[in-house]
Amino acid sequence: MIRFAVKGLAGRKLRTALTAIAIVLGVAMVSGTYVLTDSIGNAFDAIFTQQYEGTDAVITGKSAFDLGQSGTTTAPPFAESVLTEVAQLPDVAAAIGGVGGEAQLIGDNGKAIVFGGAPNLGFSVDPAQPQFNSLTLVSGAWPKAGEVVVDTATASKKKLAAGQQIGVQAQGPVERFRISGLVKFGAVDTIGGATLAGFDLATAQRLFDKVGKLDQIRVAGRSGVSPAKLVAEIEPILPPGTQVKSGDKQAASDSEEAASKAVRTSPPSRTIFMPRPPPPAAALRMMGKPIWRATLSASSASLSTPRAPGSSGRPAFSAASRACTLLPMSLSMAERGPMNLKPHCSTTSAKVAFSERKP
Fold first, then answer.
1. pLDDT per residue as tens digits for the range 10-22
2. Residue 183 in contact with residue 134, Cβ under 8 Å?
3. 23 φ, ψ to 5°?
């Protein structure tokens, strides 16, 4: 059996090589997909773990369905008055509310600043409570009304500096803001090419059309209070349409959602189809001819072809069988439309015609 298999591979060198290449490419694509998915997941895990550092509980809006199944839907905002109620709880040491959305930075040439399709993130910043701030101020000052902070990577690429004017477009028309400072996320200068734009809370609420509303409340408990106890204390006072999770659970949830959206919106992989070996030259010449003429032509050509000593098979019968098998293909190529035809030759004849013995 091994000897027969090796002989078959040696007799079909091109087919063997193409099959090997197809297997290697297929395995490489599948492996690459898993590596990319794991890399994206690990990156988002690190980002959101750092973002929620020092946060014991997180309050967000509650969607009617799983946000991970949608690439464009976000949790709904809720009333800003919830922040006041939460801050008055006995086990709450500090609480901060914030909003976010997409804020497109506009250069002096009037064009949007985009890097490879990465998102354009906008959010509120409250420097009064640094324990909740995951941004690091590199230069300048934190934003006030009419001001914005941008990330250092965008500033470096577009030659931006504190004191300059820049356009910002969120939910409404383009507005001009003064760059008050440059920031970076934790210890990194950029998050996968995303642009960062930070505003004070009132400005962010107006830009994202969320005046009097919040997207999120981050809560820190008093010393000795566990996150589970803090969550249990907050939950009874929440209005309908909101939910509370521990900081670790919220980080894991945000990471999973962001990673799934990133994978879903990444460029689709290409599937490579390896071509099958073409039919014999005699069969190709038969296409487009009436079946009886093709059969006679193939039969006469096969009978007139000398056979090597020791060869087996019936050339005329094989050629005729191939012509019968290729009849539906020839009719379709002649633009007669798809036809529900079956060759008059038996299945056994077709197998013999296209067998490994008579390629």
1. 778 888 888 889 9
2. no
3. -65, -45
- pLDDT, residue 267, reads 47
CB-count burial class (<10 Å; 0-12, 13-18, 19+) for 206? middle
Sign of CA dihedral 57, 58, 59, 64: negative
Nearest C-alpha neighbor of 155 from the set 195, 127, 191, 126: 195
Written as one letter, the residue type at 87 is A
Question: Which tokens is 288 given?
Answer: 């487009």
Contacts of 136 (CB under 8 A, 6+ apart): 183, 184, 185, 186, 187
Neighbours of 294 (CB within 10 A): 24
Q: How many CA atoms lie within 13 A of 331 on its CB side?
A: 15
Structure tokens at 236: 């009874």
Q: 122, 285, 327: which is closest to 210 by C-alpha?
A: 122
Of 347 and 132, more confident: 132
Give the C-alpha separation, 15 to 91, whole Å.
72
The reply to whether the predicted model has a pTM over 0.85 is no
| Confidence class for position 259, pLDDT limits 50, 70, 90 | low
